[in-house]
Design goal:
The complex is a heterodimer of chains A (about 425) and B (about 120). Among the domains of chain A are: about 110 residues, Rna Polymerase Sigma Factor, Chain: A; about 90 residues, Serine Threonine Protein Phosphatase 5, Tetratricopeptide repeat, CATH 1.25.40.10. Chain A contains 21 helices and no strands. Chain A starts with a helix and ends with a helix. Chain A is mostly helical. Chain B has a single domain, classed as Alpha-Beta Plaits (2-Layer Sandwich), CATH 3.30.70. Helix content of chain B is about 40%, strand content about 35%. A four-stranded antiparallel β-sheet of chain B has the order 2-5-1-6. In chain B, a hairpin with a 2-residue loop joins strand 3 and strand 4. The radius of gyration of chain B is 17 Å and the shape is flat. The chains are: A mainly alpha (about 425), B alpha+beta (about 120).
Chain lengths: ~425, ~120
């Protein structure tokens, strides 16, 4: 019987530890890192604390306040660790850190420094390509192997880049603070861009067969929610949250039963996630009420105009065109200009849209971009320029990497050829 | 934390400037140094003689090799430095952005190891 109870207790302790890990991981790492300036040491200390929890909690019972217990142990590990590497941090600094850490451990509520940690991860001195992985690891505790698989990188390479970034934070003295008003916009943009990069990695796996990548979209939404909670007055954070929620709401409709690609206009709206769309609409309304419209809010608003099809049976194309006008004016993005041309086709016809497309193609980046050729093919076929359309489909197929999109384009081309 | 600003620029440009322009350039550095001192963050600074006057020394197996010229044959050369005290990288970068060297060249910002503590630790061992 004792054995069974032991097993039960240890399972319970493991569950408590895991629940505490999910709830408190980022908060504890952020707190320890902000005090020590050392993300890696904070992560190591916390990992040790979790390991100790799994030894002690089954025997002694789970503590009343697991977070405080973990912080006390992690703080001891962190101070020990810094003491061992004393060459780097002075005795005075160590003393200050130890004192401030114990003061916090005795307080009821551990201050939430996750936002400061996010700003450190997305600091301009950190290579832009590693910011998203760094956030996922430091704030959410995702392991390097899982992040590597989501970003299609070898675990070794990803591990090395993460270590390098953390070393830079520590050695260059990258601060853990929320930037002053004057630079907040630019710095927040970097945080949001990194979150969106994580989401996009997850989004690219449209079929959702790759668990690591599908979860990444969820994690990105969680991070963005965190930013909106900690910086409630920032409309772009809500704009990005809305944008990701709209996209995530359509996940189930993006591929057919056999994994075939289904374009937005042909998606079965009964497969859209109503709850997510509602959440997105609320976030977008809240952002709009703050009166500072920027890129992510515009992109979310375009999504909102598309999902009007739920109620009216068709997307609000006039609104889509106008929103793309604003987006192009704001960002000068050739991709936005390309999507604008497609919306123009719905409002003013394929001929007008082709004229817009011709303007866009002055940018060489666009002509190396599959959607440009797919758009051109679609518009040309509508005007009856079959030969040119067939050629454009061929180029589009040649540029696409996703086999299900390739098949979709192949089918379009075959239909056109048989006409 | 101490930060070293290494000022890289194309020093051939200096020779091409008129005396008035050179005077203006020097005045900008002078004002910058004053600002750092007023803020209490200045530790030290020097302007280096042209990179063309550099000499390299390398010692292997007890043999000292002396070579003429700067380390790398690039357009921008190390032309001077500032050593400042700043609480963190952001504060250091804010100062670096005001440096005249950032306008006519590039400023590399590097944190400095605190060697006093390292020495103390070694002494204690």
């Amino acid at each position: 019987m004792g054995g069974m109870n032991d097993a039960y207790d240890s399972a319970l302790a493991r569950e408590t530890a895991e629940a505490a890990a999910r709830r408190s991981y980022g908060k504890l790492v952020a707190f320890l890192a902000a005090r020590s300036g050392d993300v890696a040491a904070a992560e190591d200390a916390l990992a040790d604390a979790f390991a100790e929890a799994l030894v002690h909690w089954p025997n002694e019972g789970s503590p009343v306040n697991p977070e405080a217990w973990l912080l006390t142990v992690a703080r001891r590990k962190l101070v020990d660790g810094v003491r061992r590497r004393r060459g780097e941090a002075g005795a005075d600094a160590l003393e200050t850190m130890a004192t401030s850490l114990s003061a916090a451990a005795e307080a009821d509520e551990i201050p939430d420094r996750r936002l400061a940690l996010l700003f450190a991860c997305a600091h301009p001195a950190i290579d832009a390509g590693i910011r998203a992985p760094l956030m996922l690891q430091a704030v959410l505790g995702l392991d390097a192997a899982r992040i590597a698989s989501a970003f299609l990188m070898s675990p070794t390479a990803m591990g090395q880049r993460l270590v390098r970034a953390k070393t830079k934070i520590r050695q260059a003295g990258i601060p853990f603070h929320i930037p002053e008003r004057a630079e907040l916009d630019g710095r927040l943009e970097a945080v949001l861009d990194a979150i969106y990069a994580a989401f996009s990695e997850g989004w690219m796996d449209a079929a959702g067969t790759d668990v690591a990548r599908r979860d990444l979209a969820e994690e990105a939404i969680y991070l963005c929610q965190l930013v909106t909670e900690l910086l409630p007055g920032e409309p772009e954070a809500r704009g990005l949250l809305a944008l990701m929620l709209y996209a995530e709401a359509r996940r189930a409709a993006r591929r057919g039963r056999d994994g075939e690609y289904i374009p937005l206009a042909e998606q079965d709206i009964s497969l859209w996630d109503e709850k997510r769309i509602e959440q997105a609409e609320i976030a977008l309304r809240q952002a709009g009420a703050m009166g500072r419209i920027e890129r992510y809010q515009l992109e979310a608003a375009i999504q909102s105009a598309h999902v009007e099809r739920r109620r009216t049976g068709h997307a609000n194309w006039q609104a889509v065109v106008e929103l793309y006008d604003a987006l192009v004016a704001l960002t000068g993005s050739p991709v936005a200009a390309l999507n604008r041309a497609l919306a123009v086709a719905e409002v003013a016809g394929a001929e007008k849209a082709l004229a817009c497309l011709a303007e866009v193609s002055a940018d060489v980046r666009v002509t190396e971009y599959q959607p440009y050729w797919a758009a051109r093919a679609e518009l040309l076929s509508r005007t009856g320029a079959i030969e040119e359309a067939l050629h454009a489909y061929e180029v589009a197929i040649g540029m696409e990497r996703d086999p299900s999109v390739q098949q979709f384009l192949e089918a379009k081309r075959a239909t056109l050829r048989s006409e | 934390m101490q930060y070293l600003f290494m000022l890289y620029s194309d020093d051939s440009q200096w020779d091409k400037m008129s005396p008035e322009q050179q005077q203006q350039g020097a005045a900008a550095y002078f004002a910058y140094s004053k600002a750092l001192q007023e803020a209490g963050v200045f530790i030290g600074s020097n302007r280096l003689r042209p990179a063309a006057t550099a000499t390299k020394v390398h010692a292997t197996n007890g043999k000292t090799q002396v070579l003429d010229g700067p380390f790398a044959d690039t357009k921008e050369q190390l032309g001077g430095y500032y050593l400042i005290e700043a609480p963190d990288l952001d504060a250091a970068l804010a100062w670096a952005g005001r440096c005249p060297g950032a306008h006519h060249g590039t400023v590399e910002v590097r944190a400095v190891w605190d060697m006093s503590q390292a020495t103390a630790a070694v002494a204690a061992d």
